[in-house]
Design brief:
By secondary structure, the protein is α/β, with parallel strands linked by helices. The chain is built from 8 helices and 5 strands; from the N terminus they run E-H-E-H-H-E-H-H-E-H-H-E-H. The protein has a 5-stranded parallel sheet, with helices on both faces.
């Protein structure tokens, strides 16, 4: 089997983390070895960056600085874990990848989509998923799931609304393969929709 890289995307509360875990289990059930990763994180550098980025406003961080921190974590994750797994023929399932940067710091943030897309393209090159699955769920349902509190991004209701619009319209970097899957229904029902789209790539 050749390596396969899938990123699960969407706004906070849409169920992407649950779907990433269910996809990992489903792929393992087909006989694949699967590496699960999250963004930011997955390496010593990434976990340190995660702590800084997700702190709830204790450290002011502008949109461009956020983007560069996410990219630094992402590159380290690629070099340490994703690329070696793909070379071994494994599947990689990532909870977020570059579309989150394009949406949160670009469309929903202050950088704008063209700037965020251009930087991601320049930095990442071809180090991108074979498939980006965006889980779409109504904003009010996501807010209900999140409740009060949350990290720097989850706690910003206006940012969440702008990100919801951003995920609905972004085309990512030219060459990206993006599918949008309804997050309505049980986790199992949504997982079937996700796996159906992944099977199109496997074939």
């Amino acid at each position: 089997m050749s390596g396969l890289f899938i990123a699960i995307e969407g706004i906070d509360g849409a169920g992407k983390s649950t779907q990433a875990e269910l996809l990992r289990a489903r792929l393992e059930g087909t006989g694949r070895t699967v590496l699960s990763v999250r963004e930011p994180g997955g390496t010593a550098l990434g976990e340190s960056v995660r702590e800084v980025l997700l702190s709830r406003g204790e450290i002011p961080i502008g949109a461009e600085a956020q983007m560069l921190l996410f990219l630094a974590s992402r590159l380290q994750l690629w070099e340490e874990r994703i690329e070696p797994a793909l070379h071994r023929g494994e599947a990689v399932v990532s909870d977020r990848y570059h579309l989150s940067t394009i949406v949160y710091q670009g469309i929903a943030g202050t950088l704008g989509e063209p700037r965020a897309t251009a930087v991601c393209r320049e930095v990442l090159g071809r180090r991108r998923p074979d498939l980006n699955v965006i889980i779409e769920l109504a904003l009010e349902h996501c807010r209900e799931r999140l409740g009060e509190g949350g990290d720097r991004f989850e706690s910003d209701s206006d940012l969440l609304a702008r990100a919801s619009v951003g995920f609905s319209k972004t085309r990512g970097i030219p060459g990206d393969r993006i599918v949008r899957v309804s997050g309505e229904g049980t986790a199992k029902v949504v997982a079937e929709r996700v796996f159906e789209e992944v099977c199109r790539v496997i074939r």
